[in-house]
Amino acid sequence: MAHGKVTITWLGQMGLMVKLGATTLLIDYFASDTAGRQTPVPIPAQQIRGVDCFLGTHDHLDHIDHDAWKIWAKNCPNARFVFPSAHVQAVSEDGVPAGRQLPIDAGFHVTLGNVTIHAIPAAHEFLEKDERGHYPCLQYIIEGEGARIYHAGDTLRYEGMLPLLRSFGHMDAVLLPINGRDGERYRRDCIGNMTFQEAADLAGELKPGLVMPGHWDMFADNPGDPAAFADYLEAKYGMKCRIPRVLEAIEITGGQGD
Fold first, then answer.
1. Residue 238 C-beta-side C-alpha neighbours within 13 Å
2. What's the whole-number mean pLDDT along residues 24-36?
3. Is 257 within a domain?
4. In the predicted model, is pLDDT for residue 106 greater than 70?
5. What does DSSP assign to residue 219?
């Protein structure tokens, strides 16, 4: 991979802006000011311009924000949209023309100029397929400008996930959900993710260049503890993490482990 400037900017929850050279990606950005949200929208949907590709890992409001995607389909007329193949109908209803859709399934990849986006399955909360055999929830590995960035979407760790991730090589940055799961949340149909310990174990075994916890800030009834994640990661693996700040641009140096 050719090396160039790469920056990542956390936008709350699992929202991430990734700039790889001249290419800008927006992943799982929740831009709607809905009831129950305890953090302000960092960039209103109407102000988003110049994005080359919008990515959603699965069809939940805080990952594919349909109200926002309808706006971006109009305001970013050259942008492409990457999402699980299971959700073509829902994305089409957002007004995204078929020619700008890049539906993807696990085991496949799409290319945008010098950027490649790989998809692997996510288990949120189960590793399952729809009636057509598509995984409704995905994780993305993004490669470009010499960097490799892993966005875990919403997932539990499942058998075979670690070797699958390792097959891509060294990760220069990872964003992992840490909000966990429990019976109380499951009973109200709030399905879960890795606990902070499980996420830290995954990071400790992957040994990426940069580790960031996500999915801990947005909703009071579905929280995570980034300080506990950071403490566990350091105590068990001697690794530091970066607890991100909204709109803080972090420059990534790619290829350090390849």
1. 0
2. 95
3. no
4. yes
5. B
Residue 87 phi/psi, 5-degree rounding, is: -115, 25
**Cβ neighbours of residue 7 closer than 8 Å, sequence gap 6 or more:** 18, 19, 249, 250, 251, 252
**Neighbour tally for 49: CB within 10 Å:** 10
pLDDT tens sequence across 233-242: 999 999 999 9
Tokens describing residue 243: 């607890």
Q: Which amino acid is at 16?
A: L
Reported as a pLDDT band with limits 50, 70 and 90, residue 1 is low
Q: Which residues of 95-127 are buried (b: 16+ CB within 10 A; e: fewer)?
A: ebeeebbbbbbbeeebebeebebbbbbbbbbeb
Q: What is the CATH number of the domain that holds 72?
A: 3.60.15.10
Is residue 63 a part of any domain in this protein? yes
Looking at the 3D structure of the chain, how many domains does it have?
Answer: 1
pLDDT at residue 253 in the model: 84
Task: From residue 31, give the alpha-carbon distance in Å to each of 14, 41, 44, 45, 57.
Answer: 12, 6, 6, 6, 15
What's the mean per-residue pLDDT of the chain? 96
pLDDT band per the 50, 70, 90 thresholds, residue 258: low
258: in domain: no
